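Protocol step 4 of 6.
Sequence for DUF2062 domain-containing protein (Rhizobium lentis) entered exactly as in the expression construct, tag removed. Do not edit the line below.
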Amino acid sequence: MRELLWPRKGFLRPIRYLTMRILRLSASPHAVAAGVAAGVFVSWTPFIGVHFVMAFVISYFLSGNMVAAALGCAAFGNPLTYPFIWGITWEIGHLLLSREDHLAGQAVDLAALFHKLNFTELWKPVLEPMLIGAIPPAAVTSVALYALTFYTVKGFQTRRRTRLMERARLRLAGPVSDMPSV
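Step 5 output, structure tokens:
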């Protein structure tokens, strides 16, 4: 029971794992960054069932890495973040569509709409504002994370390449002997 409330190795371990997993991908910095940005971008949309497919398609068109797209999608859009994402996109969507006064007295019965799964009835009150409201934060976060990921992966790969070249140089040089020559 304690493990559910407070993990033994801490809450930051999964974040460090995902970070290292992204950094160690054997792709160009652009491909990794484009994949992460595609995953983050689609995580803002209200279409949960197809986030990975959408991330793969966007990543493909941006010449991104598919694994990075999946990791970006899973890291940014998860059950812990969805309530915040939905609230933000809902509010921004209503601001952009100028609906704050229009829906003030109306109540939307989401349970009934989802039970019927009638897309046309669900579009106007729920999906349209969330989709419109997702565009600004998705654009900002995906561009910011593209830049952050690109330069982080580029620096990591440069340091790794330098370290591997140094190891190879030392191996080729052979063992160093401490005995003086006579």
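Step 6, annotate. The first helix runs from residue 2 to 5.
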